[in-house]
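Tokens help. Consider this.
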Amino acid sequence: MARLLTTVLIALGGCCTVGTASAIAIPLSEIQAKAHQITVRIQSDRPSSGVLVAKQGNRYTVLTTKHSVKVEDRYAVVTPDGESHPVEWRSIQNLPELDLALVEFKSDRSYAIADLSIAPSYPGQPLFLMGKATATPKFTPGSVIPQLQAIPFAKDPFTQGYGLFYSNIAQAGMSGGPVLNSSGQVVAIHGRSEGEEIQLGGVDSTESDRLHLGYSSGITIRTLLSYQPKLNLKPQTETLSGLLPEDVQTVDQILRPLLEPPTASNSAIAWANHANTLYRMGRLPEGIRALQKAIKLSPKAVALRYAEGVMFFTLGRSADAVKAFDQALTLDPTQDRALQGKAIALASLGNTEDAIELLSQTVKLNPRNAIAWYWRGKLMNQLRQSTQAIESLNYATSLQPNFPAAWVEKSKAWETIGEPIASQAALKEAQKLDAEL
């Protein structure tokens, strides 16, 4: 029973100390209760979720995603006791540069306010996601995913404040909901469900559902306060580790129904989405087998071939990843991310110069691909081509200023060419984004 949780918390290479939780970790039942008490439904034609973050007199403030309330509509906040509180759309405050908004309502009733945390997250750290877009609240466990592992699927990583990636399964309407740590503190606001969503293509495919690839992502409270330091919020700074040992089996029971295969389905999308769930849970061999069933059902879908390449690469089978990316490029030679994926896989096989050439082709196809510019600079650094590396990394950080790994790589390049002041400046930029660097 514990195997499933362990793979989730390890998160494809993360480091989580299951069973050795610090004194401030609390039982899972308490985390779930806290999540329920602080999460609200944002009622509209397309319901979403929100978090109670402040109270002044009889006025409550809810933090949610900007995209959840961007359309003029008749909004209401439905609190945990089922009461509906109308909201004037024009009173909603959108936060500049972030996909976040503040919604206010008045009530004489007493509601719990979230405990917020600005403590940095680490790969493998347990996280819990709550959403209330439907009458039945959704609560899913998962863990932090390293940024460089998550971004191959992400369409626009690091934009609008997004930078925390996690394996928690998210459904429509969970945007705006809290992401909690194992002490029940809110560390982020969830906003992007299941990573990038791609319409399944291919001339043999008539499916109109959405294909979910990648991870979930959110905007951390730390990021929020770096952009909006004057907000009247009182975050905590404690760090913690792991999950209480007695909760391992409970988490396993919550996750198990999500892993049921669509055995009665002949839908490529159903099998691909199942593969993505397995991928999130760290069950890569099973995920690849499920994805290959999807490919048999829709062999000309570029997105599926690309996903196969990413999964093979994550599993450490780089040669198979190259073949999968080649299949995607045969179907669509303009698929810049497949070209990028092939380059990264070749680099892991030691073909660094060929990889750089492919990445140069990638940025010609899509000059706004910050990930390709980053990898091009990183590989040039490895070949001691530091001046060219800085040029490439400058493109990466101009396109994605909130990309910490690109700043770190730029710092290394400046150091190599004997520019310590520039190197330190780049490192400071990285540390602003990730205090653990």
